[in-house]
Design goal:
- The complex is a heterodimer.
- In chain A, a hairpin with a 2-residue loop joins strand 2 and strand 3.
- Chain A contains four helices and four strands, in the order βαββαβαα.
- Chain A is of the alpha+beta class.
- Chain A is globular, with a radius of gyration of 15 Å.
- In chain A, strands 2-3-1-4 form a four-stranded antiparallel β-sheet.
- Chain B is elongated.
- By secondary structure, chain B is mostly helical.
- Classes of the chains: A alpha+beta, B mainly alpha.
- At the A-B interface, strand 2, strand 3, strand 4 and helix 3 of A face helix 4 of B.
């Protein structure tokens, strides 16, 4: 089964509690694995300030997952994102060889990005 | 008759003072422009958050397209604003 490398960044609404957010992340990782994907890398950028408010919220919980998957697993994966109202934004990109080389070479960059400026406002005016 | 020396130009002829512009991506050998790298992309965006044109940055067409795509993706996941008043 020809599998190509994809990378998905998604933003979870900040009003959730810590373990609810982790549930959302776990749910999507399991959904990927069920559809026959192999997760190669994941990054937890944590709570970050958004450049512009999305759904009246100014911060969001960023999570990135990089995975190898056959091409027909992407559509159900994305419809699940659209259906789930806890995820306010998602972006799946296909990775070409330069992108893969860049991602693999830069694993140490992750720590720099993870502790980006995150305002600690936990409760938003939902 | 004004001799050659007395001729004063209203504004001096614009000799090419600008240094020879080069494409920084080709010079440094960039292979991929990452859309997740917000602070790098901030350098390619002007005060209002608009993409800098090639004539100012001197980027080659090939990399300008990639920069454009990366900035639009970064805007989609709210790393860069679509419109900003004073960005830097």
């Amino acid at each position: 089964m020809l599998s190509t490398r994809y990378e998905t960044v998604f933003i979870i609404t900040p009003v959730l509690s810590e373990e609810q957010t982790m549930d959302v992340v776990k749910k999507y990782k399991e959904l990927l694995v069920d559809n026959g994907a192999k997760i190669t890398h994941e990054e937890n950028w944590g709570m970050r300030k958004l450049a512009y408010p999305i759904q009246k919220k100014s911060t969001g919980f960023y999570f990135l997952v990089e995975f190898d998957a056959p091409s027909d697993t992407i559509l159900p994966f994305e419809t699940e994102f659209r259906r789930d109202e806890r995820v306010i934004r998602f972006l799946t990109t296909k990775m070409d060889k330069h992108h893969i080389a860049y991602a693999e070479s830069g694993r140490d960059r992750v720590s720099k990005r993870a502790k980006a400026p995150a305002s600690d406002t936990k409760v938003e005016n939902a | 008759m004004a001799s050659k020396k007395d001729v004063r130009y209203l504004n001096p002829i614009a000799i090419d003072t600008k240094s020879e512009r080069y494409c920084r991506f080709r010079k440094k050998g960039f292979k991929y422009i990452d859309y997740k790298d917000g602070d790098f992309l901030l350098m390619l965006v002007n005060e209002q958050g608009k993409i800098m044109p090639r004539r100012l940055t001197g980027t080659s067409l090939k990399y300008q397209r990639r920069v454009g795509k990366a900035i639009k993706k970064a805007r989609h996941i709210a790393l860069l604003p679509y419109v900003a008043d004073q960005l830097h």
